Amino acid sequence: MTLRLINDPTRVPPAASAHVNAQLGPKAFEELFNHTGSLLAILDDEARFVAVNPACVRVLGYPPEHLIGRSLMDCLHPHDPTQAVRRAAGVGGWQEGYVELLARHRHADGSWRSLLWSGSAHGDHWYASAKDVTEWLRLEHRVGRDPLTGLQNREVFNDELARALARHGRSTLHLGVLYIDIDAFKQINDSIGHEAGDHLLAEASRRLREAVRAGDVVGRIGGDEFAILLELLESDYEAVAVARRVLQAFARPFEAGSGTVNLSASVGLATAHDETKLAERLIREADIAMYRAKSTGRNRFAIFDDELRVTVDRRVSIERDLRSAIARAEFSVCYQPVVSLRDGAVVSCEALLRWQHPEWGFISPDEFIPLAEDNGLIVQLGAWVLGTALAQVARWRADGHDVGVSVNLSPRQLTLDNVAATVSEQLEKAGVPAEALTLEITETAVLSDPDGAAAKLTELRNLGVKVAFDDFGTGYSSLRHLSQLPVDVIKLDRAFVSVLKGDGAPRDRAILIAVTAAARELNISVIAEGVEDVEQLAELKRADCSLGQGYLFADPRPAEQVPLGSFAELVTGSASESD
Q1: What is the CATH number assigned to the segment(s) 144-304?
Q2: How far, in Å, CA of 221 to CA of 370, rounded?
Q3: What is the CATH number of domain 316-572?
Q4: Residue 138: CB partners within 8 Å, gap ≥ 6?
């Protein structure tokens, strides 16, 4: 239970004597003190009980003589931050103003009761009342909890953070958020199974609760991502200490079925030093800091700073402008040819989305596509790219160029119930045969639900379109998925192709030959991405790779600039050089 301190001078009630009937004597106040259902107490300037009413005795189970003379701090749960009480009491007397304290008290039977204290100081004493909110908080605990880990879910955590920021505005103490992502968890989860993966997440949440300070709030934001709310920070160093403990919590192996699994985490830290920070902004800052930690090697933490603040501002601007960029005609589609490595013919073109922002200039798809995926705009963008690409193929075919087109299908699009119907409508509208369209998916599009993805891909193939597995060779389990998914084409990642020369070429060529041979057995075509020079082209031809794509042939260009003629001279020339 978190102990909270609220100090608000504007809530100090007027002097009680101004509202008391003069005919009422001390007896009336004694009766009120003894018979009210609320807990009433008077504490001195050392936070020691001077007087308690029968309700205190009833709720806490102790006789008056057990409480009188004891400090409030001695009655609290050992994990609650008792320094908050000291700050409320201050030095030489309680702070002026209305004060609230939410804390756990030990009952005489050994259980803990949550009391919400409220009161005001007068002279050297604090006059307070309290409510027993134990059952209410127990109910609150059950509602809004993640069923797997028992932690607060994203919505409840965000609400808690917003309330903390409101309280923080009246305090000189700092507040922080840690954003935690388990490194490579999707691949690990896919290899050990979802049941064992759930066990890992539950154990990770338990270790996170052990790593934090008493009163810190841990939430599960989604999947393998967690967040921790840090209140009452004396300095940022306290938050850094918690971040280090979080990393240490993952240092020990995790039990997984009959064996163990080693996990690590990337942690981002963002802090608020004034009341102007919004909850959504603070979480975004911690999230971006986490990605910096992940991009610089994983298993570490990073702190949000001024450099990252520029990144956040840019990201907010880009995400905001995404919604109107289509209407403002800021998007365009470029095309990069896919060439037969046997005769040099252009067999198809990949449609690639481009964005020219009026303020930021050219924005890489690697930057804005993930944002569009997160906020759902990828569905509208994907439909626009598909329609634009199919219309362009129709024009090329009308001009006598028998080429197809490949279009990327995002993970979110693949989950749509009507994805096959949408593709069918677009094909019919453009008047393009289904076999002229290839839809490209990445491994991340199928990792979360391989069976569901396979069903959707089968629906698409039943239309007559081809399915391509993009970035093959970079994923954790690509070979397994290759045999399980309805796939017509695999695209070897450019990182795989780039090593096909120099000292490592013989080994890499052997791997390439094995992959192409396996693909042929499965009746799958192979496209090598990132072909940049004739030496790579020669190696691909030796491995009997059938198709290539890269700057050696052409970079992505507007439709009217795409070379659709034959590259036969280039292809046959590389074969002669290799001989």
Answers
A1: 3.30.70.270
A2: 18
A3: 3.20.20.450
A4: none
